[in-house]
Write a structure and sequence with these properties.
With 110 residues, the protein is mainly alpha-helical. It has one domain. Helices cover 95% and strands 0% of the residues.
Length: 110
């Protein structure tokens, strides 16, 4: 009976020792995760800032390109309008040739 008590006491001591070790490792693990998480949080924060800045620059460049394209279209439309008004018969001739070529290509079947 005494042997059983000694064994139980040793098992109890071993379990206590394991619990203490687990508690220490738990604290170590929690601090390790906290450190890693903090680093990850910093990286994600800087990545988000970089992405926001790149997106802002992209939007600005697209806006500038759109304005430049609109200006170029305006110039081309104005030039075309002037040319059609100055030479209406020549413009009508080109439209007729283009319509004839388009009709031939679409209507011609082999």
């Amino acid at each position: 009976m005494r042997t059983d008590m000694k064994t139980n006491r040793k098992i109890h001591e071993a379990l206590n020792l394991l619990s203490e070790a687990a508690a220490e490792k738990k604290d170590d693990l929690q601090s390790l995760i906290a450190d890693r998480y903090a680093h990850l949080k910093e990286v994600l924060g800087s990545t988000q800032a970089d992405f926001s800045e790149a997106a802002h620059h992209g939007v600005e460049r697209i806006s500038q390109a759109r304005h430049a394209a609109m200006a170029q279209m305006d110039k081309t439309a104005t030039r075309l309008d002037r040319r059609v008004r100055n030479e209406p018969w020549q413009s009508l001739g080109w439209v007729a040739v283009a319509a004839l070529a388009f009709g031939y290509l679409v209507g011609h079947k082999k």
